[in-house]
UniProtKB/TrEMBL annotation:
Major facilitator superfamily (MFS) profile domain residues: 11-505
UniProt KW keywords: Membrane, Transmembrane, Transmembrane helix, Transport
Localisation: Membrane
Protein's recorded name: Major facilitator superfamily (MFS) profile domain-containing protein
């Protein structure tokens, strides 16, 4: 019984399901942060650490999960992780204050943080190489689908149930995952005398990554290097991470393979994963930013817009799988990146203050196809270049690139939008001069509008409406700049993919289209 599991498809479903709920829970708590803060009576600054606590737990456990998965097997690690995640998610809504909420959020992150690093190794070991493309596509679909449906779920929970279900919805999902793991993964016996863990390498890497992630997550709020907290987190995390890298390079380790991680072109491809997390933010961050700040939409209404990029990915996933099997995965990734870049460029050229969810729909459909093709192509290309013995190391690197890429992308995009909004507001304000004819005409129009609606004579309210119009124009310009920059990043990533060599032939390599049907017709 210690060999092949009786139902390997259940094990694959479990780890893919875990990757889905791990990302979904983090996004749900982000969208519902205002309601969670209010429930535990936390201010804006203190409450900002609620989501950071969870994601820091995910980052902290990544190296530990890789070591434990190699020693005790993925089944034991994932079962304990899912149990901890379910327990923490059950208890979080009962937190009466911020401190226990932060502790439980951290434990929830530790539990869910075991899911994604072990997903790819389990998929690759459980599937025959000719089916890897299908597993990778579902893996990519999971990550992107969970990002784009979370706003809809959070809005529905708040409007129809309560904020508690942001966390409670994870409990049955985690229990279902545990059942699939129990019946699906091999029951490998525990080692009688496990190797002594590389505590220095594992813990310095884990703590260093968690500190750097916390700095990135809080940097925009605390104004980056103007804050001693951010400088201290970055300095401490950087020193610990460098110490971990130096240690694993000079000391043989059974939890991390530096040669496998640095094997060309894996560093470039992992950088592509980071870049793709940035491009996904064009929908996951910029569209909500526009709809909330410029149009005044609520979370549920924003979710109804984002769901249109989630649904087409269900159709794009089978297309991506076929292309990976029939076309060089580099070209699949390039096709997706070009589609993402074109979608961002079109929005940057046509976005107006009157846009709503329906106006975003054509570019969202293009971006849904592009994101699925790009992420699937990049991950599959990485696997073709990877050695089987480096599977656990590769899983850790993908998890690190995924979390760090998302956080770096979010920090970069949020800072870009904030700085560009301030710049645009300053430049527009230069043309709004008291006494100027255009300003006087605009104020008279506002006064007439207020008189017709409420009977008031305007006055200060006219000036407030003018200030609001300036702010709206500046916010619109900042979102346009964000789409433009992300589009340029996507096009630059195409150039990086074209520089890579073709993967060595293997059982997972593509099979070119033969077009035998057309040859018979001729």
């Amino acid at each position: 019984m210690a060999g092949t599991p009786p139902r390997p498809w259940l094990g694959i479903a479990a780890v893919l399901f875990g990757a889905f709920i791990s990302t979904l829970t983090g996004r749900l708590s982000t969208f519902g942060l205002a309601d969670i803060r209010g429930a535990v009576h936390a201010g804006f600054d203190d409450g900002a650490w609620i989501t950071t606590a969870q994601t820091c737990g995910q980052m902290l456990v990544t190296p530990i999960a890789i070591w434990a998965g190699g020693v005790y097997g993925p089944r034991h690690v994932l079962m304990y992780g899912a149990a901890l995640f379910a327990l923490a998610s059950t208890l979080i809504p009962f937190s009466g204050s911020l401190e226990p909420l932060l502790m439980l959020q951290f434990l929830s992150g530790v539990g869910s943080g075991t899911f994604i690093p072990l997903t790819l190794p389990v998929v690759l070991r459980s599937l025959a190489p000719k089916y890897w493309a299908y597993g990778i596509v579902v893996y990519a679909l999971n990550l992107e689908l969970s990002l784009n449906i979370s706003a809809s779920l959070e809005g529905w929970y708040i409007d129809h149930l309560s904020w508690h279900f942001i966390f409670w919805q994870s409990v049955p999902l985690a229990l279902a995952m545990m059942a699939c793991l129990y019946f699906g993964l091999a029951r490998n016996p525990l080692p009688r005398t496990p190797k002594r863990p590389d505590l220095f390498g594992v813990m310095t890497a884990a703590i260093g990554l968690a500190l750097i992630y916390a700095a990135l997550d809080q940097g925009n709020r605390l104004d980056w290097f103007a804050s001693g907290t951010i400088v201290g987190l970055l300095a401490a995390g950087g020193i610990l991470l460098l110490a971990a890298v130096a240690h694993v390079i000079h000391t043989p380790s059974d939890w991390f393979d530096p040669k496998g991680a640095l094997r060309w072109p894996l560093p470039v491809l992992l950088l592509m994963v980071l870049v793709l997390r940035l491009t996904i933010l064009s929908t996951a961050f910029l569209i909500p930013q526009f709809l909330i700040s410029v149009r005044g939409y609520r979370s549920l209404e924003v979710g109804q817009a984002l769901v249109w990029i989630a649904i087409p990915q269900l159709i794009a996933a089978p297309v991506a799988a076929v292309l990976l099997r029939r076309m060089d995965s580099r070209w699949t990734a390039c096709t997706g990146l070009i589609a993402v870049g074109m979608a961002c460029w079109i929005v940057s050229r046509t976005l107006t203050p009157e846009w709503g969810p329906h106006q975003f729909l054509p570019t969202q459909l293009l971006q849904a196809l592009g994101q699925t093709l790009a992420l699937s192509g990049v991950v599959f290309t990485s696997i073709q270049h990877m050695k089987p013995e480096s599977a656990l190391t590769f899983g850790a690197m993908v998890q690190t690139a995924r979390l760090m890429g998302g956080e770096i992308g979010l920090a970069f995009t949020a800072t870009l939008v904030r700085v560009r909004e301030q710049y645009a507001s300053s430049r527009i304000g230069e043309h709004v001069v008291r006494g100027a004819d255009s300003v006087a005409i605009r104020l008279e129009d506002y006064a007439a509008l207020l008189t017709s609606r409420s009977g008031s004579t305007g006055g200060a309210r006219s000036y407030a409406m003018l200030a609001g119009a300036v702010r709206q124009a500046a916010e619109l310009q900042s979102v346009i700049d964000g789409f433009l920059v992300i589009g340029l990043v996507a096009f630059a990533a195409v150039g990086a993919m074209l520089l890579l060599d073709r993967a060595p032939p293997s059982a997972a390599s593509y099979r070119p289209f033969r077009f035998s049907f057309w040859r018979k017709l001729r």
